[in-house]
Amino acid sequence: MRIVCNNQAPGKVIRDMSNAIELVGVCARHGAVAVLHDLTAAVAAQRITALTGPNGSGKSTLLGVLSGVHRPASGSVRRTHARRPALVVQRSEVPDALPITVRQTVAMGRWAHRGAWGRLSREDRAVVDRCMERLGITALADRRLSTLSGGQRQRALLAQGLAQESDLLLLDEPATGLDADAKAQIADLLAEECARGVTVVHATHEPEDAAGAHHRIALSEGRLLAEVVR
Ligand SMILES: Nc1ncnc2c1ncn2[C@@H]1O[C@H](COP(=O)(O)OP(=O)(O)OP(=O)(O)O)[C@@H](O)[C@H]1O
């Protein structure tokens, strides 16, 4: 294990083509609240990176910056990944009352390819079926999301992320609150995606969930505490 940095020179430019994303001096805010402070870090391409830190340390905000959904207040974000990132949000962020089935949830992963109003092609439907099968949720396809357990709902969201067929998969707390078997299955799935050449980043506040990662970005109160490469 190698600690790469914990107090980099401000504004240092990383510029390494083996990185999928490089952040230099990134500050991010939610309205008036400053959340990320002068963050310089890199996400290694085709590796698994864990974002770790306690609740409120800025992991979800950093995932938002990495996905491009959250625009930094200052600093630069350089990307080498080719496709639109797939962001799998925390399952607690999906409203209980959302009246959609598991199949519809997974099919939303194809919107990046077809648009929300485009008809799914035969290939899209095959991708949706394959992703449900990989997550073991085919039998749940016609169930409303709101009727599922937390673990089942997590699988549906993961299947949606996989259905995007992106080369950058970002996941917010994918294993939090799941039992040991479900955690192991998700860890295997992330390892499979990585082996296929996908860059995987997942946020967790449970240190044991970061065990399978090649690279760890540890945050504390929105600042880089350490960047560790295995
Ligand atoms: N929409 C928002 N408006 C104002 N402040 C926000 C908003 N979203 C997050 N914050 C604040 O930003 C800080 C970082 O939140 P963030 O969700 O990024 O942390 P986190 O490490 O992902 O937390 P958790 O592990 O609880 O999900 C927290 O202090 C939080 O209260």
UniProtKB/TrEMBL annotation:
<protein>
    <submittedName>
        <fullName>Metal ABC transporter ATP-binding protein</fullName>
    </submittedName>
</protein>
<dbReference type="InterPro" id="IPR027417">
    <property type="entry name" value="P-loop_NTPase"/>
</dbReference>
<dbReference type="GO" id="GO:0016887">
    <property type="term" value="F:ATP hydrolysis activity"/>
</dbReference>
<dbReference type="Pfam" id="PF00005">
    <property type="entry name" value="ABC_tran"/>
</dbReference>
<dbReference type="GO" id="GO:0005524">
    <property type="term" value="F:ATP binding"/>
</dbReference>
<dbReference type="InterPro" id="IPR017871">
    <property type="entry name" value="ABC_transporter-like_CS"/>
</dbReference>
<dbReference type="InterPro" id="IPR003439">
    <property type="entry name" value="ABC_transporter-like_ATP-bd"/>
</dbReference>
<keyword id="KW-0813">Transport</keyword>
<keyword id="KW-0547">Nucleotide-binding</keyword>
<comment type="similarity">
    <text>Belongs to the ABC transporter superfamily.</text>
</comment>
<dbReference type="InterPro" id="IPR050153">
    <property type="entry name" value="Metal_Ion_Import_ABC"/>
</dbReference>
<feature type="domain" description="ABC transporter">
    <location>
        <begin position="21"/>
        <end position="229"/>
    </location>
</feature>
<dbReference type="InterPro" id="IPR003593">
    <property type="entry name" value="AAA+_ATPase"/>
</dbReference>
<keyword id="KW-0067">ATP-binding</keyword>
<dbReference type="InterPro" id="IPR047748">
    <property type="entry name" value="AztA-like"/>
</dbReference>
